Amino acid sequence: MHPHILTKTEDQVIRLKLQGFSRKEIAALTFRSTGTIQRHFQNVYEKLNIQNEIELYNWYAENILDINIRKMLKVAVCMTHGVIADVNQSVE
Predict the structure, then answer these.
(1) Which domains, from first to last, does the chain contain?
(2) What pLDDT does residue 74 have?
């Protein structure tokens, strides 16, 4: 999601939540307690300066989906012009 901000586990937990899994299901899938999952969410909320799941979905849409869409557009433009795209370069 945002590798420079979130830990690998926090990223995994958030991605599962965004796929529609409940916190209890996330705990089972990741072999962690529900308390540990709750703490991961608290850490993510603090790091992203958000308060709830609605804000999490909005943050993801604004920060991750937008970046991925720009990367896809960059690849499409490069393919159109016969250029190999490095999608990890700045896409702004």
Answers:
(1) 8-64 (1.10.10.10)
(2) 65
What is the pTM (predicted TM-score) of this model? 0.67
Residue 75 phi, psi dihedral angles, 5° rounding = -60, -45
- Which letter, b or e, does each residue of 2-27 get, where b requires 16 or more Cβ atoms within 10 Å of its Cβ? beeebeeebbbbbebbeeebebeebb
Residue 78 in tokens: 């490069």
Distance, CA of 22 to CA of 79 (rounded, Å): 39
Decide: 3 and 11 in contact? Cβ < 8 Å: yes
CA dist 82 and 51 (Å) reads: 45
